[in-house]
Amino acid sequence: MFCARYERGSGLPLDLWARVEGVLGLLFLSGAYRSGNTAMSLGFDSFLRERVLALPRGLVLDVGCGDGYYARLLEARGVEVVCLDPLAERLGVKGVSHVIASVAEYLPFRSGSVDYALAMFSFRDFLDKARGLNEMRRVSRRAVIILDIFNPSSLPARLLLWLYVAVVAPLLAFIASGTPNPWKLLLPTLAYMPTVNLFKRLRGRLLYCIARCALAVAVLPAGNLAANASSSRYV
Q1: Residue 191 DSSP symbol
Q2: Statement: the pTM of the whole predicted model exceeds 0.85
Q3: What is the domain range of residue 47?
Q4: Residue 146 — φ and ψ, nearest 5°?
Q5: Could you give the number of structural domains in the chain?
Q6: Three-class HEC string of 56-111
Q7: What is the pLDDT of residues 38-64, one digit of tens each?
């Protein structure tokens, strides 16, 4: 089952997306999100987020901004941020220049209206990854930055990652946050993720690649994906 999902590399089914969003809302409201993610990633999420936050300038669209914590860190660096998340109203995001409740697949902005669009650990939760990337590139003048967990290209590395995500990561997150069950949804979302080869095909470049690119930061040029994004198959 997971192999078939991996080969599709498509967006999440609507029912899984709804479950994930519900769990994310609970994690943000309880304050468990950051501690759990730091534990699961052995601190690499914080390491990579800090480097991503140092990249953009001007007007930045943060897609899947959650409770706005990292958007506020960007604003503290002098960056104007649009915090966009389907949970924005539920989470009561404050302290950011602009807050919009929406999804990546339907960005309510004119083409080229922001300098950068970034998604930090939200790309894997897109309903339609091709459309979401296309929209992020459409509204950006300079670049799109993606930080997330990806499927390694080799089968042994992929299976090892899935084992870690299924067994070890939820245990670490529970120990760190005291919240047991929500972390189990990470594996189903990972099963719909592509490899980083996607970004190479889209003329992007990798800035960071950790553990066979299971964690990676990719930068894509601004502009429409055209024919490259018309297919929902990613490998």
Answers
A1: T
A2: yes
A3: 2-229
A4: -120, 125
A5: 1
A6: CCCEEEEECCCCCHHHHHHHHCCCEEEEECCCHHHHCCCCCCEEECCCHHHCCCCC
A7: 999 999 999 999 999 999 999 999 999
